[in-house]
Design goal:
377 residues; Nucleotidyltransferase, domain 5; 37% helix; binds adenosine-5'-triphosphate; binds magnesium ion
Length: 377
């Protein structure tokens, strides 16, 4: 079996990960509509912001800003080079996100065996759950630490064989190949990969270890993860995102996509007069599917596992829609907060307002750079 060259990680970061080297690293989030990059370095155990930037991909594929794309490796390389130039990126090492849509995550139960045996069992077990030939994917896995106490022993019964929970992750090899090609062509060295939702959670999770839901609303799709005690237990993809509202506005009002995108950002769900309220209601109709689905996932998980999810963390550019936190709160009936990812790194005081607003968008890139800084400790 091929050695996995991507990474899933337990999110609870250990206290011993004090930074040592002073090397600058990048976190590169190749989204479907926007590429984001951040460069940080370690200073006295803290991650310090050096530079950051973002670039819309639409124009590289003949589409408008805000639209999801499916570009060739060469086009993505062109865009990344432009972004690196604009943002003055100088680091040549870092972490890069892999799309959740190219991954399959399955939580399974296995008997407690040693690592060697486990490595043999996983590919065999994975075949049962992965709907494509096992030769087309690379596998990685994570043993989920036990929570709670030991199961009570029943007198007279033979001791049960101990079980462990394992999260198996399969990534399509053709996606890994494309990403490796991109990395080589932009001249990055010693790069690690991580599935995007793991990165955004690292950047936005606080000390609170209670069950939480993370929603990342991109242009074309919305990614959801349920996290218990800092560990991803469940992921879900909703095949709609923020561009739905732009397209709906453009069609309903017979205006260009570019104008519709501008309107969406300016007015959002908070239209003030009659005309604006009409715009808001079109946006709302196009956004409701995502939150109906998110609520279905939330309720389903709560019922199945007999737990309560107390908090929802919003990330991704789509959640910047004006009025969205209040709107999503109505659907999800729980506390809803923005992912404040820049608070995990040292930033200049004069930028703090801007960066707090940009936090949800940059959560994947920031999570990736934090991962990289931890790795080099
Ligand atoms: N201020 C804003 N108000 C409303 N929508 C916004 C705002 N800023 C960005 N968006 C929307 O967010 C979307 C892009 O979000 P994001 O950058 O998270 O996508 P992505 O990472 O490229 O997508 P994915 O993660 O699905 O690959 C676009 O559809 C854009 O219209
Ligand atoms: Mg994204």
């Amino acid at each position: 079996m091929e050695i996995p060259n991507f990474d899933i990680q337990q999110l609870v970061t250990s206290a011993k990960s004090l930074f040592k080297k002073n090397e600058s690293v990048i976190g590169l989030d190749i989204g479907s509509s926007v590429i984001k990059v951040i460069q940080t370095r370690k200073e006295q155990g803290r991650a310090v912001l050096e530079t950051y930037g973002e670039l819309a991909l639409g124009p590289y594929g003949g589409l408008d800003v805000g639209r999801a794309t499916n570009l060739s490796a060469d086009k993505i390389v062109e865009a990344i080079k432009d972004l690196f130039r604009e943002a003055n990126i100088t680091a040549t090492t870092g972490s890069v996100s892999l799309p959740l849509s190219s991954a399959l995550l399955t939580l399974i139960e296995l008997p407690m065996v040693d690592d060697e045996k486990l490595a043999k069992m996983i590919p065999v077990e994975a075949r049962k759950y992965i709907p494509v030939p096992i030769t087309e994917v690379s596998l990685d896995w994570l043993i989920i630490p036990k929570s709670g106490g030991e199961e009570p022993k029943v007198e007279g019964e033979a001791p049960k064989q101990e079980k462990i929970q394992v999260m198996i992750v399969a990534i399509q090899n053709n996606v890994l190949k494309k990403y490796e090609e991109i990395i080589t062509k932009i001249g990055l060295k010693d790069v690690s990969f991580e599935i995007e939702i793991y990165s955004s959670i690292r950047a936005t999770i606080g000390r609170d270890m209670s069950p939480m839901m993370f929603i990342d609303m991109g242009a074309g799709i919305t990614k959801i993860a349920i996290v218990e005690q800092g560990i991803i237990k469940n992921v879900h993809i909703i095949s709609r995102g923020s561009q739905e509202a732009t397209v709906a506005l453009s069609r309903a009002l017979n205006i260009s996509v570019a104008k519709a995108e501008k309107m969406k950002r300016e007015i959002g769900l908070l239209g003030r007069d009659e005309e604006e309220r009409n715009i808001s209601s079109i946006i709302e109709a196009a956004t409701s599917y995502v939150f109906t689905e998110a609520n279905r996932v939330l309720l389903g998980y709560q019922n199945k596992n007999n737990i309560t999810i107390n908090k929802v963390v919003l990330t991704g550019g789509g959640v910047l829609l004006k009025g969205l936190p209040e709107y999503s709160k109505k659907w999800l009936e729980t506390e809803v907060v923005f992912g404040d990812s820049f608070s995990k790194i040292e930033t200049p005081a004069f930028l703090q307002g801007v960066l707090t607003d940009a936090g949800p968008e940059f959560s994947v890139a920031i999570g990736l750079s934090l991962k990289r800084l931890q790795e080099s400790s």
